[in-house]
Amino acid sequence: MKSKDGILNAAGINTRLAHLGNDPAAYHGFVNPPIARGSTVLFPDAQTLVSEDQKYTYGTHGTPTTDALRDMINTLEGSAGTILLPSGLAAVTVPFLAYLSAGDHALIVDSVYFPTRRFCNRMLKQYGIEVEYYDPAIGAGIEALMRPNTRLLHLEAPGSNTFDMQDVALVSSIAHEHDCVVTMDNTWSTPLYFKPLDHGVDVSIHAATKYPAGHSDVLMGFVSANEKHWKKLDEANRDIGLCVTSDDAYQVLRGMRTMGVRLEHHRKSALDIAQWLEGHDDVAQVLHPALPSFPGHDIWKRDFKGSSGVFSFVLKAEENRFTERSHAFLDALSIFGLGFSWGGYESLAVPVSLRDRTIAEGPTEGPLIRLQIGLEDVADLKRDLEAGFAAAGAA
Ligand SMILES: Cc1ncc(COP(=O)(O)O)c(C=O)c1O
């Protein structure tokens, strides 16, 4: 079978997504890798067993299926190595455990995914790590927050729910002057729209549950590290003992094959709806980085190749009627489901609470609603949202 490696290096993203990680010659010509279920791997003799001198040694350390997915992610991220974890949240917590020790100080962006904050406030503090939240718009001001024991800077851009942008390259370079590892939750963009390691980040994190899986039927996280930080991440994960099943890795690999075309559809539909909402009488504000009205738009335009399908808007409501109006809006939707997560084929809506924020407090003039725009037809989604606005107005 002909090797495609040379061609793929120079190929477009959809060609790469269609072929990376596949090695038909190794599996009798079958296009996809097998689902290798297994804990035990046999060795041919005692010497090979004691030296563990063969490619696969035990189920937790990888299988041909998980390797196919990891190879693809490493190529897309430009990383030295990737670990696969059973959820996106674990993809944030494992690197924190890998790189932080008692007595360290960690800087976490204030617009971080809430369960990440909960892990920091409970588990990291319990293990003697000091956590401080910073303004996503801090830029060069991050220098003033650096202490001799600051060891980790965590970014999420756009931030959860309010989509605050960050100057990734600037804060990363300052953090490196202080010998900090820089981690970034890049779930919103996927490596198709932003490659963190190209902008100075050391460790790129994804909830693969979202766009990579793409069908709301599997949970997974990816963590990809550069050469300097890979060994520690890999060792920590072996120590902790987390891994994913080959069945789940196969599902995510299957999702990745179509991620480019799905993401382009999410992008176009979400932007169309965001622009439409911006001109809507019942909307006070739309928070979407690709809209020129958005405060972080210039940074988004400079650094990002695209925008995905999740954004928020502020519903107009009198000060004491936020809950009634937003619940009436949500209850009137029928195509949009009410439920957590995003990145699947179906549209979702959730009310957003920013109670946890300490610095980036977000809009206050009305209730905030987050939309995940799925793969349905935009006209149908707009009709559904109009039903929501009508019900909110009547509440
Ligand atoms: C930005 C971000 N990171 C991480 C996660 C966690 O992913 P999972 O649901 O797979 O734990 C989520 C989930 O919503 C998320 O939005």
UniProtKB/TrEMBL annotation:
Cofactor(s) this protein cannot do without: pyridoxal 5'-phosphate
InterPro entries documented for this protein: Cys/Met-Metab_PyrdxlP-dep_enz, Cys_b_lyase_bac, PyrdxlP-dep_Trfase, PyrdxlP-dep_Trfase_major, PyrdxlP-dep_Trfase_small
Catalytic activity: L,L-cystathionine + H2O = L-homocysteine + pyruvate + NH4(+)
Family (UniProt): Belongs to the trans-sulfuration enzymes family.
EC numbers: 4.4.1.8
Top-tier EC class: lyase
Superkingdom, taxonomy of origin: Bacteria
GO aspect biological process, one term: L-cysteine catabolic process to pyruvate
MF GO annotations: cysteine-S-conjugate beta-lyase activity; pyridoxal phosphate binding
N6-(pyridoxal phosphate)lysine modifications at: K210
Keyword tags: Lyase, Pyridoxal phosphate
Record-linked PANTHER family: CYSTATHIONINE BETA-LYASE-RELATED
Protein name per UniProt: Cystathionine beta-lyase
